[in-house]
């Protein structure tokens, strides 16, 4: 599907995560934060240090859309965001003159998506088209494994963080990190099952409308 839609695995999973948020929290307009590597210039590839910035991806979902259309919209917005990936997130917050919420939470987004693919490099994973063999569920391909991690409220920086990890050659890992002050263990188990159902439906029926 990624090859056909000319998108990356990250983009596909981001679209699924946005659809999950739309259905689970009953909100159609929201933002998702994504961390990106700052090592996108040859001059700093060999430097030692922490080069990570945060981009904010805006989403506006209409139930009449198909998943294929949603994926194309997400793809375009992510590519547009990467055009400004050198703008420091803190500078953006100051420019917008927004204050952090209680508990140190920032106000621009409640949800975060972190994608790991160390085999192909941090920055390139978001921009180069990639296959989705790991999600085809046939032959010897990897089947996605969904996990959950409950973090104390003092450690969870966001309400819900979706982590996708395609680094391993053996398995494809998906995780939810969540704030225990907001979500119960059984509730997150239900969220995990819901996410996997949305993912599989998107792969099998990409032309189906997003209406529940």
Mean pLDDT, to the nearest integer, reads 76
Distance between the termini: 22 Å
So what's the overall shape?
globular
The CATH topology turns out to be Chloramphenicol Acetyltransferase
Question: Secondary-structure element order, as H and E?
Answer: HHEEHHEEEEH
Count of extended strands: 6
Tell me the major beta sheet: 6 strands, mixed
**What count of helical segments does DSSP give?**
5
Polypeptide structure, described:
- Residues 120-142 have low confidence and may be disordered.
- The protein has a six-stranded mixed beta sheet with strand order 2-1-3-5-6-4, covered by helices on one side.
- It is globular.
- Helix content is 31%, strand content 22%.
- The longest helix has 20 residues, at 185-204.
- By secondary structure, the chain is an alpha/beta fold.
- The chain has five helices and six strands.
- Helix 2 (9-25) packs across helix 3 and helix 2 (9-25) crosses helix 5 (185-204).
- A hairpin with a 6-residue loop joins strand 5 (160-165) and strand 6.
- The chain has one domain (2-37, 52-204): Nonribosomal peptide synthetase, condensation domain (Chloramphenicol Acetyltransferase).
Keywords:
alpha/beta, 6 strands, six-stranded mixed sheet, 31% helix, globular, Chloramphenicol Acetyltransferase, 212 residues
Task: Give the topology.
Layout (H helix, E strand, L loop, with lengths): L1 H4 L3 H17 L3 E9 L14 E9 L6 H16 L6 H8 L14 E6 L27 E8 L8 E6 L6 E8 L5 H20 L8
Parallel strand pairs: 1-3, 3-5, 4-6
Antiparallel strand pairs: 1-2, 5-6
